What does this fold into?
Amino acid sequence: MSYQDHIDQISSLIGSKAGAWDGIGAEAVARMRLQNRFQSGLDIARYTAAIMRRDMAAYDADPSAYTQSLGCWHGFIGQQKMISIKKHFGTTKRKYLYLSGWMVAALRSEFGPLPDQSMHEKTSVPALIEELYTFLRQADARELGMMFRDLDAAREAGDTARTSELLDAIDSHQTHVVPIIADIDAGFGNAEATYLLAKKMIEAGACALQIENQVSDEKQCGHQDGKVTVPHEDFLAKVRACRYAFLELGVEDGIIVTRTDSLGAGLTKQIAYSQTPGDLGDQYNSFLDCDEIDPGEIGNGDVVITRNGKLLRPKRLPSNLFQFRPGTGEDRCVLDSITSLQNGADLLWIETEKPHVEQIAGMMDRIREVIPNAKLVYNNSPSFNWTLNFRQQVFDAWSADGKDVSTYDRAKLMSADYDATPLAAEADERIRTFQKDGAKRAGIFHHLITLPTYHTAALSTDNLAKEYFGEAGMLGYVAGVQRKEIREGIACVKHQNMSGSDIGDDHKEYFAGEAALKAGGVHNTMNQFGEAA
It folds into this structure.
């Protein structure tokens, strides 16, 4: 409905109440409705799932139409990110949010900072989704509220052209609400626990759930050692649990992202159940590191399996975990990915140990031989040393091409001494085009950085603390923060407005008319910032 349609509908409703509702302003209600477009998290999940589906189809047609996101650990961070995107690019198209389980563990647990091992409260995950969307919806309300004020001013000035322009802008307003890809870790328990948590996350607004094939109670960060995977059937039960949650709640096109940690996981907690040679369980077990033995060599407590008429004893650690054969990680990733897509997954996530387009592409080429439209969500992780990795990639490429690299020490390429060299320049160019190259060559539909705002918060706080508590004193804040906010048009320089003060004033006027005691008068110090922000 257009702005005027809302006004007309509410006017008719008020008129039907025989004068009892005459104190209600139809235009005020229309404004409040437009400022609160989404009535529930499920409305958001359905709306954003449709966006992702359209974006996936667009990527299939043109790999340059990839999508991106940044991990956000607080609603304010997500809100400021989307306000910034609208300011700089004029649209939120193909730009999402990512909710990182790592950052929930490190920053949002009641236990305090925790490692990424699923020890944080599972309820903190849907709580953060709800918080993010609360802040994004408030960004809508704030932006529309400023447009309504401008509309009133244009009307008062008799500026019909400006009035018409603002009415068109209100009707075509683009929401700050975008898809969130939300990390459900390894499901926080069995399939039933996964289903229950998935429901809460979807009800909070998540249209895309990312789930990994690690053991829930042994879960590790994807960039740490000691990862333990589960047999495919165990994992697929959790994938189905997520799909059931989407379907129960009426989000029929919800997205499931299945992550495999097999590239860096050399252990399994279970030997898969197998009924016939070559079935899924047998394929999983075929990667186990085993010794061939005779029946008489079976020891106390040994676990043995048979394959091709041979008796095999899988190597078992004192932790009761079983080892995979070294060098099988890539084959296991490919099998994991194909199996997931054949059993209800929509997108893949392969956790790698370095950002290397050809390594990723090598696996995706094999997957796409079976599933031609397979697509990746890829973690542009801060756990990678991007500078060192790409300088070493260039060093290796130059060496292979016979170029002279004698002036470079491969092990020390991170050094600032190399910053101005041709090798560093080429490495930086490869970093700059990594997302575009990965989307084109390696099937990466969505590029995300898991923990960027964790690092930016630390860096900006360090800079401010160094200046403010040092010789710069208050100038450290003014020159390093406020002056930049004003000149760069950072919206939250007017922090009272950002926190909703003007929205509250509007509501006071709706409710009490001329008797409203408003905060935005002439003595409000935010007026010092004028229109600079």
Observations:
- The first strand starts at residue 67 and ends at 71.
- The chain has a mean pLDDT of 93.
- The longest helix spans residues 124-157.
- Residues 300 and 313 are 12 Å apart (CA to CA).
